[in-house]
Design brief:
The complex is a heterodimer. By secondary structure, chain A is mainly α. Chain A is 73% helix and 0% strand. Chain A has a domain of 27 residues. Helix content of chain B is 42%, strand content 16%.
Chain lengths: 60, 408
């Protein structure tokens, strides 16, 4: 294993975790990001609601 | 934590070695489409009536009420469902409302409105929250279906036209007037106008002298004896009485009023020929000569009814009189101008006469949030400031009155 980041395909593969690239890709695309999206929208909703309580009043 | 950051950093920044760029982008694209569709599906699922009434509070209380209204069942078959009115349609407000529902979930868990009684008691709070929302957005959800610009005023009933054209010109929020359109109104009868508290405390501190005239601040029971054991009727609010004497908790007052010499003659009025109620007596006592003295009789030329001036002495509970009627009218005036101007420009008090006001007022008071006592005071205020008592504008002797009577 060399310290050069531009190593051979096999070396990079080894660094990335021995071929679990597909697992990570699928998990990220179909689980991680959707969960993050939902959480962000919920956070956005809560933020708007709290702003409505504190400053804006009900939506006009 | 540090390893987590390192992991995420590697996950996002290290180029893929085995999967092609096209496959990654395509896979991400598909995942994005599925995620967004799924999100919308979930959003829609929580925006369905089935979802709303899956909660027993909604199913037991609000659904049966809605089912009695035109928004559930009508000849055109267009139907409003819970979220049509109660969930904003635009994305940001909708998401905010959905998150706000976490409060409702909490309420469900702790059982704030778990029973019908609890619900009825709490209803005013819920209603006011929703009314405030509609007031702020100009009843936007109503107007998704009923908008002013799409209304054909010509096809409305003439009485509706007046109200609706005015409302449209002011771009008024629908729920300002149409409260309780899809659910029962909260119980306002038990509600209490705090303005009366000041009056009652003024009355409690009022020095009362025998022989002087006073006014009742709230309706009072009338008793035949100073022990206040036999109830014989009710003295209405703002009724003028002369105090004769005070004994313990009781006060003897003299009523000098008018009544129609017809039936039992139970209802006593403040003035000849005007239906301004001052007292309502029990049947048993109203025709009792020992209690009631008829001073004089006079025929009302307009109705042909004989009116009698009557006098009686009765007892009331001490501490309910004040020496000036003005503070009562101040409360009534404030209530009249705030409650009635919500839907229309309130007419001048002197625009109608004392006998016209009760009919008008009775037809309108249901649209307001006035409690029973306030409504009585306001009606009396309107009657005693009507054209029969006013000398200005529309009052007797005013130019337009002269023109009216001059017509054939």
């Amino acid at each position: 294993m060399t310290s050069d980041s531009r190593g051979t395909a096999a070396e990079v593969d080894a660094q990335a975790g021995h071929g679990n690239e597909w697992t990570r890709f699928l998990l990220l695309a179909f689980v991680g990001l959707p969960v993050a999206m939902t959480a962000l929208i919920a956070a956005y909703g809560f933020m708007v609601w709290f702003l409505q309580i504190l400053f804006f009043g009900p939506p006009s | 934590m540090k390893t987590l950051f390192a992991f995420i950093r590697r996950l996002f920044l290290r180029p893929s070695a085995r999967i092609g760029l096209g496959v990654l982008v395509t896979g991400g694209f598909i995942a994005g489409v599925i995620a967004w569709a799924g999100f919308n599906k979930a959003m829609e699922a929580t925006n369905q009536e089935r979802f709303c009434i899956s909660c027993h509070t909604m199913h037991d209380n609000l659904l049966p009420e809605l089912q009695k209204t035109v928004h559930w069942n009508n000849r055109t078959g267009v139907r409003a469902r819970c979220p049509d009115c109660h969930v904003p349609h635009a994305f940001t407000d909708k998401v905010a409302r959905k998150m706000q529902a976490s409060r409702e979930v909490w309420g469900h868990l702790v059982g704030t409105i778990a029973t019908r009684d609890k619900f009825k008691e709490h209803r005013i709070v819920l209603a006011q929250r929703e009314w405030a929302r509609f007031a702020a957005n100009g009843s936007k959800e109503c107007r998704a279906c009923h908008d002013y610009k799409d209304m054909d005023f010509e096809r409305m009933r003439p009485t509706s036209q007046v109200a609706m054209r005015n409302a449209a010109s002011r771009n008024q929020s629908c729920v300002d007037c149409h409260k309780g359109i899809a659910h029962q109104l909260p119980d306002m009868k038990g509600a209490h106008n705090p303005a009366f508290d000041t009056l009652v405390s003024t009355a409690a501190g009022q020095r009362v002298e025998a022989g002087a005239a006073y006014f009742t601040v709230v309706p009072q029971d009338l008793f035949a004896d100073e022990a206040m054991a036999t109830r014989i009727g009710v003295l209405e609010v703002a009724a003028k009485v002369k105090v004769l004497e005070t004994k313990g908790d009781a006060q003897q007052v003299e009523l000098a009023l008018w009544r129609k010499n017809k039936g039992y003659g139970r209802v006593w009025y403040g003035h000849f020929g005007l239906n301004i109620t001052s007292a309502v007596l029990d049947k048993a006592i109203a025709r009792d000569d020992k209690f009631v003295t008829v001073v004089e009789s006079k025929e009302d030329p307009l109705t042909g009814l004989e009116w009698q001036q009557v006098a009686a002495k009765a007892w009331i509970r001490k501490g309910s009189l004040i020496d000036s009627v003005e503070p009562i009218w101040t409360i009534a005036r404030a209530s009249y101008s705030t409650s009635c101007s919500v839907c229309h420009r309130q007419p001048d008090e002197a625009h109608f006469d004392a006998n016209t006001w009760p009919g008008l007022f009775g037809g309108m008071v249901g649209f307001t949030s006035m409690d029973g006592d306030t409504a009585k005071v306001v009606l009396k205020y309107l009657q005693t400031h009507s054209s029969d008592f006013s000398t200005t504008q529309h009052g007797a002797g005013a130019p337009d009155t002269t023109l009216q009577t001059a017509r054939p």
